[in-house]
Each structure stands twice: as structure tokens, then as C-alpha cells.
Design goal:
Low-confidence stretches: 4-13, 340-364
Shape: globular
Helix content: 25-40%
Radius of gyration: 21 Å
Strand order of the largest sheet: 3-2-1-8-10-9-5-6-4-7
Oligomer: single chain
Number of strands: 17
């Protein structure tokens, strides 16, 4: 994790004079599979991928590229990397994934946040006031705050001029806090299932949205992606394991198409593999939360796993509401605006809702 020194903190003594008069609120969650953010009125979700660049690029890309010019973290000076889908595009077989390293939600947080800025309209100056979420916020929140905060001058994409970024972390909350704020879960007891990429987190919130208990259930949406990639029919078709990012894109865009060139339909394989996934990963998580569920005012599911085709329908039949990742990020954003008295100046357009597919059943 980048460390700050007294010498480094003096690197840009006049940085504050460059910053815009109005700070920009940011709701942030660095997840195992995706990094979700609301930056001002720009909302985004990029894959939690980073690829360090050590060789000369043919051309600077239009998005995803960061070169760290100067700032609080001396060890990043001169370093270049690609973030999000650009990391995957350059080499689909060699990139860093947050889900592969337990510390990556902290160590890769700054590269991903700076990378996220490369996917929104260009600005020379950013004064970001952040409310973030992370698992075990009480134990890990300080490390995340330290990893993000500071002043950073970077080159983004093919822009000739630098971008100056100041990051102030106002609060780090437990995962699920954004959903609590969005859904207004401030009265009584409420239960949230967070079906993430690597794990499923069951969180119980009490009066005023205070966290009461939290359990981690093994397995997440990545287990389903792995099952599809290693399905015998898929291996025969592809002469090996399928590309996991290509599978993920086909599911997320509701086409079930594997690739763009000569695509084939993944839906039969998805139908074959999602039911065992629901009978193991989903069943285990719901069983872990069952002891609280009947006494809760509301039960909500968030995370990419909750938005999977067929899974949403199963959850709804069990009386569990689903919120999109955008709602989660908007909740963190709303908490930030309330805490820092930063008004939301523009209406935020709703994120496109996932289409519902076929119905399914699961005996739990």
C-alpha cells in the first residue's frame, strides 16, 4: 500500500490553490468484481482490473489509461497502468483482479479510483469528497482512507495536459450501508444479502441503520462464472476453458452471447449451471440469514449475484427485494451529500434495469 512521508506531503505545496471552488461528492465501492462509483452526476461500474504497463504503448487509449506524474505517493511516480475494461482489452490473459488478492480492495483502490476518472468527461481539477464502503469497515476503513487520501497529478488517456486530483475520505462504512440509505432502512431490524463476486455477506441492521451483526458465507457470482467456463460442453466447443470476462459480459448484457465474432448462445449452459449454484451458494447464504429474516421489516439483496437472470426471480418469490448496484452507490453518495452539506446540483439519470428472464424455482 502506498505510504506517505512528510517530504512527499510537501510535494505540491500550492496544490490547494488549483482546486475548484466546489468539491465533487463521490460514493465509492471497490468490489471483487466491479468498482462502483458516483462521481458528481456521473455514475459508473468498471471491472476491478488493473494492468501495470512496462512497455511502450502503440497509442494512448481513449479510456482506462493513467500515468502518475506527481503526488503524495513517491513509489507511484512515473508508473503507468490501465484500469477497468482497458486492462482486460490489452491482454485478456494477464491482468490483476481484485478478487485474486485479499488485500487488493486496499492496494488497488487508488489505481482504480484514478482509473475511474479516465472513464468520465475530462476535467483538469478534481476535489473529491468520498464516502466509501468496505467489508470490516471498523478494522479496514483506516487503511482504505490512508490508501486513497492525498493529492495526485496524473495524465489520463491521450490528454496532453495533467489532471490534478485531491481526495478526501469523509467516511468509510460497512458494505451494505449504501443500500440501507437508499432503501431508508432506519426503523426496526432489516436484513441485507450482498451477493458479491467472491463471497456473500449477510448484514443485520437495527434502529437508525446501525450494524448489529455480519456473517460471511462462502462463494459468490464468480463461482457461477467458473462453472460455466469449465463446463464440459464449453470446453469441447472452445478447446479449453472459456474466457471468464466474455462470459460475464454476455450475462450482464442479457444476450447470453459468447463474444462478438461468431457468437454462440450460452443460455443453455447458464441454465444448466445456475441451478447447482443456487442450490449451493444461494441456499447456504439464505440459510445463514434465516434466523433473522422472519423478524425483519425488510429483506434486501444487493450485488451482482442478486441481479443474475433467474436468481432475481427466486429471491422475489422468497420475499427478498433486489437493489441494483447503482442504488447502492447512490446511497453512499446521498450519505456523503448529507454529511458534507454538498448539494446535488444535477438530476442523476436512472441506470438501465436488467431485463427479467425465465422463471426458476429452488428448494431451499
Amino acid at each position: 500500500m502506498p505510504t506517505q512521508t512528510a517530504q512527499n506531503r510537501q510535494l505540491l505545496p500550492h496544490f490547494g490553490q488549483l482546486l475548484p471552488s466546489k468539491p465533487t461528492p463521490m460514493g465509492l465501492d471497490v468490489g471483487n468484481s466491479a468498482t462502483k462509483a458516483l462521481i458528481g452526476n456521473e455514475q459508473m461500474s468498471i471491472p476491478s482490473y488493473v494492468q501495470p504497463i512496462y512497455t511502450k504503448l502503440h497509442q494512448l487509449p481513449a479510456e482506462g489509461f493513467v500515468r502518475y506524474v506527481a503526488g503524495n505517493y513517491a513509489e507511484l511516480h512515473g508508473k503507468r497502468w490501465l484500469a477497468g475494461k482497458a486492462a482486460y482489452q490489452r491482454n485478456p490473459e494477464a491482468y490483476l483482479r481484485v478478487c485474486d488478492d485479499k488485500q487488493a480492495k486496499i492496494t488497488q483502490a487508488l489505481p482504480l479510483v484514478l482509473g475511474a476518472l479516465s472513464y468520465v468527461p475530462f476535467q483538469e481539477l478534481w476535489d473529491l469528497r468520498v464516502v466509501a464502503s468496505i467489508h470490516h469497515a471498523r478494522e479496514m476503513g483506516g487503511a482504505l482512507k490512508q490508501a486513497l487520501e492525498g493529492t495526485h497529478t496524473v495524465q489520463l488517456n491521450d490528454h496532453s495536459g495533467p489532471t490534478h486530483v485531491s481526495i478526501t475520505v469523509l467516511k468509510v462504512l460497512d458494505e451494505g450501508a449504501g443500500a440501507v440509505a437508499t432503501a431508508g432502512l432506519t426503523n426496526g431490524q432489516n436484513l441485507i444479502y450482498d451477493f458479491g463476486g467472491g463471497t456473500t455477506i449477510i448484514s443485520v441492521f437495527g434502529e437508525k441503520g446501525r450494524l448489529i451483526n455480519r456473517q460471511v458465507s462462502p462463494g459468490g457470482a464468480n463461482a457461477l462464472i467458473d462453472a460455466i467456463a469449465t463446463n464440459p460442453d464449453v470446453i469441447r466447443r472452445e478447446s479449453g476453458e472459456a474466457d471468464r470476462e466474455t462470459i460475464r459480459r454476455g450475462i450482464e448484457n442479457d444476450t447470453f452471447a459468447y463474444g462478438l465474432q461468431s457468437p454462440w448462445d450460452m443460455e443453455p449452459v447458464y441454465q444448466q449451471e445456475v441451478r447447482p449454484w443456487m442450490s449451493t451458494v444461494l441456499r447456504t447464504a439464505l440459510k445463514a440469514g434465516d434466523k433473522w429474516q422472519r423478524n425483519c421489516n425488510r429483506v434486501i439483496a444487493i450485488g451482482g449475484g442478486a441481479q443474475l437472470p433467474l436468481v432475481t426471480e427466486v429471491l422475489e418469490k422468497k420475499g427478498i427485494e433486489t437493489l441494483t448496484d447503482s442504488a447502492w452507490a447512490k446511497g453512499l453518495y446521498g450519505i456523503l451529500c448529507k454529511r458534507s452539506i454538498i448539494p446535488i446540483h444535477q438530476e442523476i439519470a436512472p441506470w438501465p434495469a436488467r431485463k427479467k428472464n425465465q422463471t426458476a424455482s429452488m428448494n431451499c
